[in-house]
UniProtKB/TrEMBL annotation:
Signal peptide: none annotated. InterPro entries: DUF3667 (IPR022134). The chain crosses the membrane at residues 85-104, 237-257, 269-291, 297-318, 330-354. The lineage of its organism: Bacteria, Pseudomonadati, Bacteroidota, Flavobacteriia, Flavobacteriales. The keyword Transmembrane applies. This is DUF3667 domain-containing protein. Keywords: Membrane, Transmembrane, Transmembrane helix.
């Protein structure tokens, strides 16, 4: 008796009726699309949240270098794929990090509001005006110093800002930040050219690059481009930065372990190492946000411990002398941190951060 043939709904290849799974592509036959099936397929296909993740979690956290070694040894279905692991934990991290960013944006917007809503005191006696200016300058500088991380300012930027604000009658700057705010607001509402508004705000005719940046930043704040948007754009640049930095990290490993396999081998190691970092940071955020606040010294201690995790992972993965591995680990870490700074700077510039 001839067996009835049916076609697979996925690959459309024929197979004998009675099979629970297609012999050609492996898809389950006659599976009803329920909410449960839809949810499981979404998680399974895009994040591979299955037994392999649970099986990979313990060695990822407590056996440095083990997963990368096993993956290269051919155990590629037993544990979660390195790229899938990285994708999954990075999504979790940035989701949790968004709660922290929301607080940063709130603080930055509070600073923005203080700047925009500050009223100008006019027609004061000279001595009173000078005293008022002095107090206002001190408030501005103190606010900038406390929130320099939120505003993306370096110590050098603060020093230059300090020197600019403290100038009273120098050639570089003709304002003490007591410009007529109502007039500036009316110029903004009228759509006046930025150059005209800068002049009304007191920018000197021969303003240098940094002075122009200061005025551009203040003008953007007055136009409603809140400091919170600056924070958001900075955070938006982080995933792209990691997308660039991870392959560069693998390239560093290739340079220091040139004879220890192809570039793809070092890339596997990098995926698992960065997955560990994101997992650790996600756990810290989860505890700090939803369970109990973590003291700063404990957070820093755990973050510093990642260096020793990296060292042990190199020892286990590359099987080299402990002393030379420690030297290479230190150099790779140092060089990579140097790479982070220019990469982040370029991305922030592309996102419009450096120009306010």
């Amino acid at each position: 008796m001839e067996t009835k043939k049916i076609n697979c709904q996925n690959c459309e290849e024929p197979f004998d009726e009675g099979f629970k799974f297609c012999p050609n592509c492996g898809q389950k036959t006659n599976e009803e699309l329920t909410i449960g099936v839809l949810f499981y397929n979404t998680i399974s296909n895009y994040f591979s949240f299955d037994a392999r993740f649970l099986k990979s979690f313990i060695p990822l956290m407590f056996r440095p270098g083990y997963l990368a070694k096993r993956f290269l040894a051919g155990k590629r279905l037993l544990y979660l794929h390195p790229a899938q692991m990285y994708l999954f934990v990075s999504v979790i991290f940035f989701f949790l990090f968004s709660f922290v960013v929301a607080e940063w944006k709130k603080e930055a917007n509070a600073i923005n509001k203080k700047i925009v809503e500050s009223e100008v005191v006019e027609q004061l006696p000279d001595e009173a005006q000078k005293q008022f200016d002095s107090i206002q300058k001190a408030k501005v500088l103190e606010s900038l110093k406390k929130n320099k991380a939120l505003l993306g300012m370096t110590d050098e930027d603060l020093k230059k800002t300090d020197s600019i604000i403290q100038l009273q009658n120098g050639n570089n700057l003709k304002t003490s930040w007591d410009f007529n705010k109502k007039k500036v607001d009316s110029l903004i509402d009228a759509g006046a050219d930025d150059a005209i508004i800068y002049k009304e705000m007191g920018m000197s005719n021969d303003a240098g690059f940094f002075e122009k940046r200061i005025y551009a930043g203040f003008l953007n704040l007055m136009k409603g481009s809140g400091a919170g948007s600056v924070i958001q754009r900075s955070v938006d640049a982080v995933p792209i930065a990691m997308f660039i930095l991870l392959p560069l990290f693998a390239l560093l490993l290739k340079l220091f372990y040139f004879k220890r396999g192809r570039y793809s081998h070092h890339l596997v190691f990098s995926f698992y190492f960065f997955s560990f970092l994101f997992t650790l940071f996600s756990l810290l955020l989860c505890i700090d946000l939803f369970i109990v606040p973590i003291p700063g010294w404990i957070s820093w201690l755990l973050i510093l411990s990642t260096f020793f995790y990296f060292y042990v992972a190199l020892l286990n993965f590359y099987r080299r002398n402990w002393f030379f591995t420690f030297v290479k680990c230190s150099i790779i870490t140092f060089v990579f941190m140097l790479m982070v700074i220019p990469t982040t700077g370029v991305l922030l510039a592309l996102f419009g951060i450096m120009n306010g």
